[in-house]
Amino acid sequence: MSAVHREALRGLYTITPDDMLLPRLSAMVSMALRGGCRLIQYRNKVAPAPLQRAQAADLLRLCRAVGALLIVNDDLHLALEIGADGVHLGDDDGDLVAARKALGRERLLGVSCYSSLDRVETAARVGADYVGIGSVYASATKPQAVRASLDLLGEVRRRFGLPVAAIGGITLDNAPEAIAAGADMVAVIGDLFDAMDISARAEAFQGLFNHGMPVSP
Ligand SMILES: Cc1ncc(COP(=O)(O)OP(=O)(O)O)c(N)n1
Ligand SMILES: Cc1ncsc1CCOP(=O)(O)O
Ligand SMILES: [Mg+2]
């Protein structure tokens, strides 16, 4: 993994909300980038494939302009097709070994591990670049998600040395607790994109990593 990639695996990890409008989604992600976020995941569970492709390509353009990384959720082929910086795969999203091979060493592979140390072990064995742990808190975006304990964040970090993204119900209020427990990244949808000022909220999340305290409310 390059130094640039390693550096990006700390801080706010912006995950996109389901949105059927390309300009609106791009405008929202631009605000997160303006707030200093340098890691974006394109996740859209409702858009048809052609719109997904167009949205992901536009987000990649925005990320490239500021030196941020774009990870595509679920879809290795889309990630490779647009030349994204990596893919994030869960339990049902395809073979991890094949994905690692197709991505090469330069592009990132993120793996959802839920609350399972066995899955973290598998992710480490196949050469994942980071793991997602959660849902750490109750998530309005994905209420049915399995829950993971805060303690697991630190345990995964200590035992496997892989960057850990805490996900699920993360807010500006509870993120310090997740970071103190061992999260290298906080992966956020709702509390970022529901904010009145998305840039300010992104900056506040980033500030938790830079100074240990939010920059602004
Ligand atoms: C950083 C991060 N961690 C976990 C997930 C969840 O992935 P998955 O379990 O495949 O669920 P969906 O996101 O596809 O609904 C994630 N996307 N990102
Ligand atoms: C994709 C995913 N996986 C577990 S919770 C979740 C959704 C996270 O969204 P939010 O930050 O709004 O809880
Ligand atoms: Mg998935």
Descriptive report:
GO terms for molecular function: magnesium ion binding; thiamine-phosphate diphosphorylase activity. This is Thiamine-phosphate synthase. Mg(2+) binds at residues 74, 93. This protein has ten helices and eight strands. The chain is of the alpha/beta class. An eight-stranded parallel beta barrel has the order 1-2-3-4-5-6-7-8, surrounded by seven helices. Helix 2 runs parallel beside helix 10 (198-210). It is globular and about 40 Å long. The site of 4-methyl-5-hydroxyethylthiazole phosphate (TZP) has 14 residues, from loops. Residues 134-135, 139-142, 145, 167-170, 188-190 line the site of 4-methyl-5-hydroxyethylthiazole phosphate.
CATH-scheme architecture: Alpha-Beta Barrel
The shape, in one word, is: globular
Number of domains: 1
Count up the helices: 10
SSE topology string:
HEHEHEHEHEHEHEHEHH
Helix and strand content put the structural class at alpha/beta
Q: Descriptors for this entry?
A:
10 helices, binds magnesium ion, 217 residues, single chain, alpha/beta, binds the ligand Cc1ncc(COP(=O)(O)OP(=O)(O)O)c(N)n1, TIM Barrel, binds 4-methyl-5-hydroxyethylthiazole phosphate
Summarize the structure.
Mg(2+) binds at residues 74, 93. The protein has helices at 3-8, 22-34, 49-66, 76-82, 96-103, 117-126, 150-160, 175-181, 190-193, 198-210; strands at residues 11-15, 39-42, 69-73, 86-89, 108-114, 130-134, 164-167, 185-188. It is α/β, with parallel strands linked by helices and 217 residues long.
